[in-house]
Amino acid sequence: MDFTIQSALVPVEQGYETVDVQLIDGRIAAIAPSLEIVGAVVDGRNKLLLPGFVNAHTHSPELWQRGMIPPTPLELWIAELYEFEPLDPEQLYLSALATAVETLLSGGTSVVDHLVMIPGREVESIAAAVRAYREVGIRAFIAPLMQDEPLTASIPSGGVKREHIPYQRSTQESIELLHKAIQEFHRPDEGVVILPAPTGLQLGTDALFEGFVELSDRYTLPLHTHLLETKAQQMLAHEKYGCSAVKHLKELGFLSSRTSLAHCVWLDEADIAILAETQATVVHNPLSNLRLGSGIAPILKYLQAGINVAFGCDGCASSDSQDLLEAIKIGSILHNVTDFDYRHWMTPRKAIEIAAIGGATGLGMADEFGSLTVGKQADLVLYDLKNLSLLPRTDPIGLLVLGRPAQAVDSVWAKGNRLVANGSVTTINVDDLRQQLFDRSQWITNRQSTKIAQVEAHYRSVMNLPEQIKGYS
Ligand SMILES: [Zn+2]
What we know:
Layout: E1 3-11, E2 16-24, E3 27-32, E4 40-43, E5 47-51, E6 53-58, H1 74-83, H2 89-104, E7 108-115, H3 122-136, E8 139-144, H4 171-185, E9 192-194, H5 206-219, E10 223-227, H6 231-241, H7 245-251, E11 259-263, H8 269-278, E12 281-284, H9 286-291, H10 299-304, E13 308-311, H11 316-319, H12 324-333, H13 348-362, E14 380-384, H14 396-402, E15 409-414, E16 417-421, E17 424-425, H15 430-439, H16 451-462
Parallel strand pairs: 1-4, 6-7, 7-8, 8-9, 10-11, 11-12, 12-13
Antiparallel strand pairs: 1-2, 2-3, 5-14, 14-15, 15-16, 16-17
The structure holds zinc ion.
């Protein structure tokens, strides 16, 4: 449907301007003051119009464990996560709905879901997420999370010989499963893209990465993976390859301008040069990096090296929300403590740019969305500047990034379709979603993981931590 947003505030080089925006056939047709009205009129007065952000890395099924897992590093946290993962595709459908809704209501119009699948019901798992994202109407980049090595292999050996039980699915079966997912669900024109996305070097063989690169080339698909999230992964890469993980990924042909890499906390100068050269994108997930004690990704160094950066919320079990504005706030001010030269610090405008065009670039979609540009698809968000959390009137983008906007999103469009109006999602019944999430869960305070106990002693020894006396909690 065509429409005209009237009298919205948009950022320009020097400050802000009040403009009308014509949207025709799902694309931005014109941006200028006092335009002729086409289609329906949307009142943009006292509202800020920005391009939609990209939630460039998350795992929607983790919603079922948000607020739950005790403070532990990734290698232990993940053992508990998988011990209690949801096993009903209907749960995956609901958590994808909730992920989409929370993303929309914090300024996002696209989501990259590194989707944890139910063992043995993988295709159903992908179908459930696809169904949810289509119903909400958000632009969905679904990256089925695949590994071909068992979880115990993700912890460095520390020189101790360890036997691992082979992973449940072979490399070839994983490649075939991805191929099937592409054929069944990949519909870029309808806003559903399937991404080849190995879990990470810590859980994947070279053959898995190479097979996924081949499918990415064959179907021109973006690639996605976790990269050097923890110190343990950095150690593991050196054990496994005798060189840095980044160098190895480059040799596997995995790095290019359509590759996005979640985390990138433990990279050195040589690694940074490789990312700059290959034009791969770093997805910054500040909340989970803090929650899991992984470290602070050197984002200012990446920006100075000309590396494209995007923001992600990461899954709800390690960030406990899908609030993009929260991730953007923490992900921009966090780095001020890493560099005394304040001229390197990230400004609110830079943070917005990273969240929008940075995300689109990492998916090879910068020509299609991510900025207020005539000809691009209408992935847009209007923020209500009369919302209490954005008052009194100062710098709208400063208020949005540095403040704590609460329910400030007034309207959202993705691919030209209006998904949020007057602060409410128009495409699904959110009250019904809330009720279902409530009914399918219970208050839990005494859950005990047995899996953590199986890996904790080895983890502590490899990481040079004193031998444990009590349990992890
Ligand atoms: Zn992740």
